[in-house]
Amino acid sequence: MSSALNRVRGLSRVSSLRAAHLFGHSWREDYHRSLHLVARGSYCFQRNTHRASKHSYGTEAPLSCSEHLATNIHPPVDNNNHSKDRTAPPAQPTSPSTLQNTSTFESQPEDYQHTNTLDNLKLKTKPREERKRKSKQIPTPSEYLSKTLQKHVFEQDGHSSLRTFHYGTRQTHGRPRQMISLQATLAEYIRLVDPLVSGAPSHATLSEVRNDLDIALAHVFKPESHKYLAARGYDIEDVVSWAWIMKSQNARQAITRMFALQGDSMPKQMEIPVFIPLFLLKEHHLDAQSFRLLLVYALHLMSGHPLPSVDSLHGASGDLEKPASSEYHPRIKLGTCVTLIDRLVRHARQVWPRALPTIATVFSRFLTRSHTQKTKNSNMTMQKLNRGSTEKFNTCLWLLSMPTKVNPFRAASIQQQAQFELLKSMASHKPVLPLSRKGYQAIVAVQLAHKKTLAERQSAELKSPSWPPWKEEKLGMDAQRGNEGLQSRAMNVLSQMTEAGYSHRVWEKTSTILAGWDTDRSPTVQTRTLVPRSSSLSRASDDEIDKYAVVWAARIRATRTIREAWACFLAYQDQGLPPKLTIYAEMCTKLIYRQMAIKGRVDGMGQALPGDGPEVHAEPASARDIIYVHTEPPTVEDLVHEMFSHEFRPSGRFLALLLRSAPTFRTGIEYLRRSDLSEKQIAALCVIWGHPSQCPAPYLKTLGSLPDAVFVSFIKFLCTRSKSIRMKMTGRHSLSPNDFPAMTENTQTREPLAALSDFQEDLGQWRHPRALWHAVQLVKLRQPYCHSAWVHLLDAMSTERVNKRHTDRTRCLYRIIGWHETLAVLRLMKARGVDSGSQGFKALCTAFKKAVDAGIRHPGLVEEALSLIHKATQGDPYLSSDPDAFNDMVETGLKTLKDEFESLVLPNAAMPDLAEHSVFVAEQTDQFQPKVPLGLHVPSFVTLHSFVGALGIAGDDDGLLHLLHWMSRSVSELSEASQERQNGNKNMRLTLVATRTYLEQSQSQSKLQEGCDIIQKAGWEWPTDEEVEEYSRGLYK
Questions:
Q1: What is the pLDDT of residue 490?
Q2: Beta carbons of 171 and 137 less than 8 angstroms apart
Q3: What is the b/e burial string over 849-868, where b = at least 16 CB atoms within 10 angstroms of the residue's CB?
């Protein structure tokens, strides 16, 4: 044990020094003190090993010790938690062992090995069904560790909302059957030992704490537990280190601590157990920076490459010859790798889709290497190995096909690239691994979401305006073009699926229609769409009517105009089929997007073809091409009213679309009231609280149960339907909480508790005076990880909220206040750990540009705005007379924007040294080595144009040149991203013209020439004088 204690002190010295540099002194003291106290208590553990082997926790301990542990470690136990069918045992006097053997999650004995014979007999007399049900409720060691952390760490420290884990659907209680495991040992240490070493109660003496610590250590590290640890190369101090990682306040801190411990250059360096990174990947949400670190660590586990040590970072081992990549062996087993991939792909879809190809490449190499090793060293048959590899490849294809959280259509090309990595491995395998039905469906789903190829676009342009849209030869060369592009890529995969022997079910029929061909082989419109999972459609296959409804809904979607969609709707009704919600939802979607196109005047603008997006095109110009329908298409209001008459209740994404497109405030509330949401959920959305602290806990729980799509759309509905700032605000020298909710977050409105529907008659139908206030409060109450809700708030704060009746000075004043409101929302996002993303960053640039322009046009207005803000936030009058207030606002704003841009595209600034010098990140590595993408996001040229405008209006020429340098280094990524967007080349040109325009305003020829050199070196053309003149006049488009 003395050698172990020496390693404890050495480990604490190296790790705490590194941790102090990364986290601060207080965490270092906590970790060092825990190791010191455990080291002292472990002497007692060594002396009393024979006692611990014969007795369970605290069996022969003094009564005072048992009472102290029962009151300080265990909460009061409810003995009525037994099943109703179980016969209650006779009352027995409470003993110290009874108190200490009671779990905080259940009232059964702590360890199954110590259960007495009578309890075993009672267990056997239970009905078989109840024993089976009870066995399903027993947690796994990982589930037990999750609940222990949630109950004894996060809820105690008050930061439980920052750490939420994905438990699945199992409701468990009690302890695992097998307590001898790394997870269970760590959970018991956190539950029993850590409260004693982290901070002793004030009424306990040092001797009492040491005595309690000895008892707790003897219980946690029983001989069999210590033997289990030693067999795997671990000691007690390793458990202390793991607890230090798992107790972190957030995922970023836990990951950084894991890298800090992993990098300790010790003679005996043990790997962090794989269950720790697996556990961190169970977090419901990880920001992109944290996920990138975990991805680097996971790639080392799957490939076998060791992480660089601290000595290697300083050149101590730089001259050593590194082994070839083929000499490394994975440090995890196949089952663990599959679980790891599942969780990595889930987080990548949520925050960083660019990592999907790297994950797919490493996984395919892992499967290939694992298959080769088992073929040589195992007696398993080749057929069984191939069957297992086929199943795992197809499952991974399916995981990669699921839509991403943000910009799912733009991520389709990335998903396609990731799937191609797996398909190449399957094709190069001997024998070739086949695709299953799930694998074919995964490829089709990605192809349907992918944009059209050049051949497919040319084929779409040749479709006749009449229905069905057969190919129409417009020029002589069109006859020579042949059938190229008529069969889309998704249709080709479906044809190969049929040739492979798979029959077409409901999912395949709907996909065929959306791919451009109906079931009768007549053409439809190739539609870029996200198809639902086949599991949801398989339930419809049991009902013949539901099956027809799903197919006809796809036919309505695969149309170009309202009359074509309405003809499909009427054809469904003419067959005598009953009304279905899916049919009404598709037809309403067509009507809504047609209204948006008319309102936005987008007909004939841009390069979008029918099916490229949700936009609905105008009817053909020629009357002979217009499809005949026996009744005219209805309006959205009429069709929705008819839908409600059939007692259909909208839900999910359809309800979200209705809320976003509601023409009036009253209509949106009516949609919500007639939806499938429960009364509690509607009340949670519609009750207006004067302050978040007034909201009771049941409302918070109900608010958290709402689907993300519905909640985000309701926030957008409130932001767009908020009333403009009233005219009487002018000259009041105060800010109304209803008009500026983000700046008055610490104040409580004097308005009584109310509901949104109470104001309908007084307001009319268009705007609500407290809608924006209510939107801010809902977001603060729910604190969503989905950044779309936050982006809607940022857009609302940066949008003009005054009408034309206000003077220009008043409008500029509110622009400056709006910029500070935007910063307040950004601080709330940072506190929650939510990234702004490209859309949020664009809103920040827009608000900053408006504020700077307002300060330039009206000097001294910034001081007035700061006075109003100070009064709203602090409650006392304050008159700012700082002459540098405007310069301070510009300087602070520029720093904020640059920091956000760096966090958006440059992840290395926040990476630990070990991760930054990984073989998967470093630039000077093997070209065949999979690489983690250097940037987190590739912003669009629309976002870059907003950033250029913000830098230019502030006169930051150096910032413009730095941005140009970054753009020149990222030419390939920017070009690829622009190709995935409509009008990408036009927006790129707009960004370059804006850059030259602002550089010319600096009157510095050297900087102008430097910008010209950077642009031309990147392969772009320097903007012309005519383009700059048109841009300056606001005519360049």
A1: 95
A2: yes
A3: bbbbebbeebeebbbbbbbb
Per-residue burial over 528-558, b if 16 or more Cβ lie within 10 Å, else e, is bbebeebeebeebeeeeebbbbbbbbbbbbb
Measured CA distances, 580 to 509, 562, 586, 806 (Å): 18, 19, 10, 49
More confident residue, 1022 or 51: 1022
The radius of gyration computed from the CA coordinates of the chain, to the nearest angstrom, equals 32
Q: Which of 153-162, 301-310, 804-813, 986-995 tops mean pLDDT?
A: 986-995
Q: Is 407 left (phi over 0), alpha (psi -120 to 50) or beta?
A: left
Distance of CA 832 to the CA centre of its chain: 13
d(CA 359, CA 931): 10
Residue 348: which residues within 8 A CB-CB, separation 6 or more? 291, 295, 355, 356, 359
Cβ neighbour number for residue 646 with a 10 Å cutoff: 11
3-class DSSP state of 722: strand
C-alpha 739/C-alpha 726 separation (Å) is 8
Contact (CB, 8 A) for 151 and 104: yes
SS3 call for 530: coil
Q: Which of 165-169, 549-553, 752-756 has the lowest mean pLDDT?
A: 165-169
- Of 173, 177, 236, 269, nearest to 45 (Cα)? 236
pLDDT for position 18: 33
Check residue 65 and give its pLDDT: 33
pLDDT bracket for residue 757 (50, 70, 90): low
Question: Which DSSP letter does residue 523 get?
Answer: B
For 559, the token pair is 């149309």
- % the chain with pLDDT above 90: 37
Higher pLDDT, 731 or 847: 847
In DSSP notation, 74-115 reads: SPPP-TT-S-TTSPPPPP----HHHHHT--SS-SS-S-GGG-
For residues 657 and 653, what is the distance between their CA atoms, to the nearest angstrom? Answer: 6
Contact 990, 943 (CB under 8 A): no
Residue whose tokens read 């709707």: 569
How far is the C-alpha of 35 from the C-alpha of 29, rounded, in Å?
10
Place of tokens 């707790």: 216
**The predicted structure's pLDDT at residue 117:** 33
Average pLDDT over residues 300-325: 59
Contact between 844 and 882 (Cβ < 8 Å): no
Scanning the structure block, which residue is given the tokens 């024979």?
50
**Greatest C-alpha distance within the chain:** 101
**Mean pLDDT in the chain?**
78
Q: Where are the domains positioned within the chain?
A: 2-74+102-247, 446-645
pLDDT of 622 over the 70 cut: yes
DSSP 8-state secondary structure symbol assigned to residue 323: P
Binning pLDDT at 50, 70 and 90, where does residue 822 land? very high
DSSP state of 688: E
Written as one string, the DSSP assignment of 726-790 is PGGGTT--S--TTT-TTTTTTS--SSPSEEGGGGHHHH-SS-BTTHHHHHHHHHHHH--S-HHHH
More confident: 664 or 90: 664
CA-wise closest residue to 396 among 342, 332, 335: 342
Contact between 614 and 600 (Cβ < 8 Å): no
811: confidence class by pLDDT, cuts 50, 70, 90: confident
Q: Of how many residues is the chain composed?
A: 1037
Q: What is the DSSP string of 9-41?
A: HHHHHHHHHHHHHHH-HHHHHHHHHHHHHHHHH
**Distance in angstroms (rounded) separating the CA atoms of residues 254 and 276:** 10
Q: Report CA 177 to chain centroid distance, whole Å.
A: 34
- Angle CA 583–586–587, to nearest 5: 85
Residue 460 · residue 452 · CB < 8 Å: yes
Residue 480: per-residue pLDDT: 63
